[in-house]
Specification:
The strands form two sheets. Strands 6-7-8-3-9-10 form a six-stranded mixed sheet, with helices on both faces. Strands 2-1-4-5 form a four-stranded antiparallel sheet, with helices on one face. The longest helix has 17 residues. The protein is of the alpha/beta class and about 230 residues long. Helix 3 crosses helix 4 and helix 5 packs parallel to helix 6. The protein is globular and about 50 Å long. Helix 6 links the parallel strand 7 and strand 8. It has a single domain, classed as P-loop containing nucleotide triphosphate hydrolases (Rossmann fold).
Length: about 230
């Protein structure tokens, strides 16, 4: 990894919420560095801060304090509009729930982030991504006409169609049966390796976490490396 490029660097990230009894700190001084091509997992009990951290790393929320740099950009310096445009072009995010647009076909769902970015080749690239996840024959189907595993494949294609440098996955197989979930995680690892993406997986699945090169555990808002 000595020649790898630093994709993400989180320095002393904290997150607190205001409550009637005062600030409630959810994250405490999180430091994390990810390089290109690395697979990193984060595990921990419910309520430990994993989802909050993922929201910060996905730039869906902002830290209370600390610095977050992704692909060389200090995202804390962007306004909301700049951040939304940058996020769509630079990050891939796969959630446990698929978050597909129900009135759009699989192909249209995959093309959507490229269309928003004004890419004239949006549907050409979307077709390539659909083929890559093995759904060429289902591309004209609506999400309601697809199985859970197929919907997650569409979501994966959508997250990768912009060729992001960083892919974030939040329990990507959590809503699927074990066999389908295994196929989905295999697909994520295969495609991310093919396109040399860095991957951060937040999961309760210890087997999935063990497939990553580096593992972290979150406890009470503190992130620690696992041996």
């Amino acid at each position: 990894m000595s020649d790898s490029v630093e994709i993400l660097k989180a320095s002393a990230l904290t997150k607190s919420w205001d409550t009637p009894t005062g600030p409630l700190r959810v994250l405490s001084g999180v430091d994390l560095t990810i390089k290109s091509g690395e697979f990193v997992s984060i595990v921990g009990p419910s309520g430990s801060g994993k989802s909050t951290l993922l929201s910060l790393l996905a730039t869906l929320d902002r830290p209370t304090t600390g610095i977050l740099t992704i692909a060389g950009r200090d995202v804390s310096q962007m306004n909301d509009d700049e951040l939304a445009a940058w996020r769509g072009a630079s990050l891939g995010i796969v959630f446990q729930q698929f978050h597909l647009m129900p009135a759009l076909t699989a192909l249209e769902n995959v093309a959507l982030p490229l269309e928003i970015a004004g890419d004239k080749d949006a549907f050409v690239k979307a077709r390539e991504a659909i083929i890559e996840v093995g759904l060429a024959e289902r591309s004209s189907h609506l999400p309601g006409e697809l199985s859970g595993g197929e919907c997650q494949r569409v979501a994966i294609a959508r997250s990768l169609v912009t060729r992001p440098k960083l892919l974030l996955a939040d329990e990507p197989s959590g809503s699927l049966d074990p066999e389908t979930g295994q196929k989905i995680t295999d697909l994520i690892f295969t495609l991310a390796s093919r396109h040399k993406m860095a991957v951060i997986v937040v999961t309760h699945n210890q087997e999935l976490a063990a497939r990553c090169q580096r593992r972290y555990v979150m406890r009470a808002g503190i992130l620690s490396a696992m041996a």
